[in-house]
Structures are given as structure tokens and as C-alpha cells.
């Protein structure tokens, strides 16, 4: 079957047929989930016989004019969860605990509270080699130590002025 010319995910049209890795038709494209400002592709929503399913970007294969190919078999598509409404993270949400599922790194609060989760997400999400994981942890520990030294130095300066 000819899928047509390759397309970027931004050019996909609703209704495009979606096929699993084993070649089975699984449904039609409902929408592309992305952040155009950040140019981040998060996945697609597919209308299947069992309802709408969210397929993450890592499971989406080649996109073309007449078909979207997935990297997972049809049996796994049926097990995917329904799409959930995205809720932007606001400053007042920071202390509410960890999010219910994977959160794109761009939505995390960076700083001391968000640095380690960002590193862990990047390592788990991209399956980096162990050496890079260790290097990331070392960088995190060094940054934490520098931050603590800065805070300690600032507090000592504050007590000397009194």
C-alpha cells in the first residue's frame, strides 16, 4: 500500500488512517497533540473501535499523506489509555505533589526543586547510556552543593551585619 509522500506531524489531517506496526488498521487520526511554540510533538489521538486512544510520540512512526504508521502492534493500541485534558501547570500548583503521569520536561519548574525530576525524566524517557546518567547526577549534586554554599554564605553575611 502506498502511503503517499512523507509529511511532518504538523501537516497531518484529521481522518488520516492509522495503522499498527503489524499492518492492521487501528483507526483514524482525530488530532495531533503538540506545542507549536516549543516545536514539541507529544503524540496523536486516534479514534478506534474501542474509543479514542492517545498514542505517545515515541510510538508514532512515519507520517505520510494517506497514512500514519505506529511502532506498536494493534493489540497494544487497544491497551492505550484515553486522552486526558491537558492542564497547564501554574505557579500555585508547584507544591501539590508529583503529577499523575509523565510530564514533558518543558512544563517542569526548573530550579533546585525541578532539576532532579527533570534529569530523571530525561534519563527514563530517552534511555540514555549509564555514563550520561551518572554525569547528570554529578552535575545535579554539584549544583545543589553550590546552591547550599551560596545560601550558607548569605546567611553568615546576614548575621555578621547585626
Name its key features:
162 residues, alpha+beta, SH3 type barrels, 2 domains, six-stranded mixed beta sheet, 3 helices, 6 strands, 32% helix, elongated
How is the secondary structure organized here?
Blueprint: E1 17-19, E2 25-35, E3 40-48, E4 51-56, E5 60-63, E6 68-70, H1 74-79, H2 112-126, H3 130-160
Parallel strand pairs: 1-6
Antiparallel strand pairs: 1-2, 2-3, 3-4, 5-6
Helix pairs in contact: 2-3
Question: Can you walk through the features of this model?
Answer:
With 162 residues, this protein is an alpha+beta fold. It has two domains: 71 residues, PRC-barrel domain (SH3 type barrels, Roll); 59 residues, no CATH class. The chain contains three helices and six strands, in the order ββββββααα. Strand 1 and strand 2 form a beta hairpin.
Q: What is the gist of this entry?
A:
By secondary structure, the protein is an alpha+beta fold. It is built from 3 helices and 6 strands, in the order ββββββααα. It starts with 16 loop residues before the first strand and ends with a helix.
